[in-house]
Queue: 2 jobs
Job 1
Amino acid sequence: MRTRVVAVANQKGGVGKTTTAVNVAACVAAMGKRVLLFDLDPQANATSGLGLEKVEGASAYRPLLGEGALAKKIQKTAWERLEIIPSELDMCGADIEIARLENHVQRVKLALKPVVDSGRFDVIVIDCPPSLGTLTLNAFTAADSLLVPLQCEYYALEGISIITRLLNQLRDTGVNPGLHIIGVVMTMFDGRTRLSQQVVDEVRQHFGDVVFDTVIPRATRLAEAPSFGQPIIYYDKY
Ligand code: ATP
Ligand code: MG
């Protein structure tokens, strides 16, 4: 089976991208697939969420600039079949430096190609930063599909229309003709408020089947898990 590359993206901050990326990656690995979590965000939340320290020189930064193989940055985690390309602060510079290079939207795609072609992973999950900068554009170019977390709040719909527009541009210009949204996941659903349900209803009206049936509740355990460096299925088994 061909390696599938899924980018978890939303330009809005704090909507649940990293929580989704870390936990989807861990769950898919637990189901028996070989998974690579690629932390493309200088905040490195996915890296610490899987219990790794931020280590200077450990990120994709240099390979993205064309220095060295990205495969050398892949590290094992505490869990079977789950590996990671960690991030750290130097990725802050990547956004600007990559923008100055040739093929500047293809950098992640080109660096990932040998990893994809090797067939070493079934799925590569990319955790994107909260912006539509060069790194996110690179993720959109490298990905087969986008997984879009939307927080159950008033501005959710505006966020997704920006992503949809960018996706259409990448498709229409031929940069990534096959790119599609694999699903929209509603996050931080609060059953005590009417707003959460209203937002879910409205998003479903607009986007129909592409919205996952499963809605992620607001849950303290989910917010705590990263500080223990564990995906939720290990931090809170029941
Ligand atoms: P950024 O844009 O900064 O990268 P993000 O979109 O990756 O943020 P997360 O880091 O996943 O978002 O989540 C933002 C905050 O909300 C974190 O503190 C996280 O632990 C918390 N959080 C995420 N999902 C839930 C949830 N379902 N219930 C409670 N807290 C949550
Ligand atoms: Mg994040």
Note: The first helix runs from residue 17 to 30.
Job 2
Amino acid sequence: MSVREEFDAWAEEGRDKGMEERHWHTAKHALARMPVESGDVVLDLGCGSGYAGRALRDTYDAERVYGLDGAPEMARNANRYTDDPQVGYVVGDFDALPFAAGSIDHIWSMEAFYYAADPLETLREIARVLRPGGTFFCAVNYYEENVHSHEWQKSIAVEMTRWDRHEYREAFREVGLHVAGQDNIPDREIPIPAEAEFPLEEWETREAMVERYREYGTLLTVGVAP
Ligand code: SAH
């Protein structure tokens, strides 16, 4: 199944908003670290509901924010959730970014990068469109060390790349990005029920749920264009 078919269906079912709610727990901490300055142009790859673009405008006074998504229904919803003329959501694919070389100051991506058909090619595209000193903030919950995420592939028809922390850093370097940092941002907001309530439908033990959210949370890798 294509990205378009899979995620158009998600958008139509309202899952774009569900993701926004869950991802915001950790995304907001990562977004708060972005070195965006007033007047910057920022790009959100795989924008879903477009919440990151709206937040970047609200908090940083970015001059222009583009959200790119391969699913037209996602981009359409995102456009509907804002009337800010400085934010635009477009349909496009990670393997050919519709932006000129050096035209973007900073790039954000949450829970989307690993759907790229060719992640190294996508990284090359990111390195191409970033201006010197521009950053790529790549946030993922699906990655090798997070063993609790491994089964997600079973319920998603688009093939997902499951790199570990080291592979993310290596891939960034392979396309010429410097790795400025990498860490785990815990989700401290999702409520974790008391011991007596386990097993839950999704969680066998409380320990596993604590590990998934409070320990692994979101893996953030930050690249800087030379
Ligand atoms: N960033 C949002 C959405 C995450 S879901 C959030 O945090 O909630 C992943 C999104 O990436 C989907 O909307 C999907 O359509 C998009 N996507 C996946 N593969 C893509 C590709 N190759 N090109 C463009 N968008 C893609």
Note: The first strand starts at residue 41 and ends at 45.
